[in-house]
Design goal:
37% helix, Alpha-Beta Plaits, 15 strands, disordered N terminus, 27% strand, 375 residues, alpha+beta, single chain, elongated, Multidrug efflux transporter AcrB TolC docking domain, DN and DC subdomains
């Protein structure tokens, strides 16, 4: 004990020379183990590189990540129906059937002339394949649809983001491109929609074909007919009629009988009534039937010439480069085999591959530069 302080001396134990060596030997580091097992470490590194390369090859290539809300669109067409009829006869029935779909967040409906659309938004992360099956099953529970209504079509796109590609259709030899809208809608769009990864197509421009019926008021009055009565008679003829179903083996097939005439000459033979002497009154007796074009509702221009424009959207999670390459090949084939003989040109004028390839080149350059600096 010191004389000037009241503290007692504390006992200390001298450290043994082998203590540090014992601790180090008891807990060898990760680096030491890696040095002791070079073959194992090399195999692990090769496996990591292999799985990393496989993951990169299977990774969808696109300019920006998918951040859109999972969405399904149900479209039902009813030719000749007013928006009010579409809402009451179709949309309300479908809404009652779809409101119980699991994972559904928002349901919006829109009624237009001859068409009703329901947009379904689901929780983020909802598997769209399962949602598609559930929506289809719920729609099959709708009690009935109007006789002239088409089957509902379910699409997995919301068409809210930028289009995958823009395609133009224009004349090359003086052809009237407006007159080809119905042909493009019925013959070309289904072929483009079947390309894997394409979820929706919007056609802008052109004029649909329609049948014009010009009545002779004198002939109507002479036969005691009115325009409303003739219109009702035509509505009864221009529709498909269900013919029931029959069983073929293990399959049950539904049959519909198309009654709508295929040409103006057939439409002229529609019976509107009977004269006092019992002779049938045909449409050609009181009207002239011809094929014409609908009133223009939209217009598209390409190179200062009238044209039609196709906007195409892709399915979420698909590889933009693969879908675009398949689309380019299909467009080139259709242009050569279907459009050139008609005096038309089908051409893709815009897509996302240029931006994506530029971004990929920049990433590759950065990887090479980073690897060189690390070495």
């Amino acid at each position: 004990m010191d004389e000037g302080s009241g503290e007692a001396p504390r006992a200390t134990r001298p450290s043994a020379p082998g203590d540090a060596q014992q601790v180090t030997a008891a807990t060898p580091g990760l680096l030491a183990r890696a040095v002791e097992r070079p073959v194992t470490v090399l195999c692990c590194v090769l496996l990591v590189c292999l799985f990393g390369a496989l993951s990169i090859l299977r990774l969808p290539i696109q300019l920006a990540p998918d951040i859109a809300v999972p969405t399904l669109t149900v479209t039902t067409r009813w030719p000749g129906a007013a928006p009010t009829e579409v809402e009451m006869e179709i949309l309300e029935e479908q809404e009652d059937a779809l409101k119980g779909v699991p994972g559904l967040l928002v349901m919006k409906s829109e009624a237009r002339a001859e068409q009703g659309t329901i947009t379904l938004e689901f929780e983020v992360g909802t598997p769209m394949e399962e949602a598609l099956v559930r929506v289809s099953n719920q729609l099959s529970q709708v009690p009935r649809y109007p006789d002239a209504a088409r089957e509902p079509v379910i699409a997995t796109s919301n068409n809210a983001g930028p289009p995958l590609a823009v395609i133009t259709i224009k004349a090359t030899s003086g052809a009237n491109v407006d007159a080809y809208r119905t042909w493009v809608d019925k013959q070309i769009l289904p072929q483009l929609e079947r390309i894997p990864g394409v979820s929706g197509i919007l056609l802008i421009g052109g004029r649909d074909q329609e049948v014009h019926v010009d009545f002779d008021p004198v002939a109507l009055a002479a036969r005691g007919l009115t325009i409303d009565g003739v219109a009702r008679a035509l509505q009864g003829e221009l529709r498909d009629v269900s013919a029931g179903d029959f069983t073929l083996g293990k399959r049950k097939l539904l049959v519909r009988t198309p009654i709508a005439p295929d040409a103006p000459a057939e439409l002229e033979l529609v019976v509107l009534g009977a004269s006092p002497d019992g002779a049938p009154i045909l449409l050609r007796d009181v009207a002239t039937v011809k094929v014409g074009l609908r009133k223009r509702t939209s217009m598209a221009m390409s190179d200062d010439a009238p044209s039609m424009v196709l906007l195409l959207w892709r399915e979420a999670g698909t590889n933009v480069l693969e879908v675009t390459e398949a689309l380019k090949a299909r467009v080139a084939e259709l242009d050569e085999t279907r459009f050139a003989p008609e005096g038309l040109e089908l051409r893709m004028i815009s897509d996302q591959t240029g931006y994506i390839n530029g971004a990929l080149e920049l990433v590759e350059q950065n990887l090479i530069l980073g690897g060189a600096l690390a070495i």
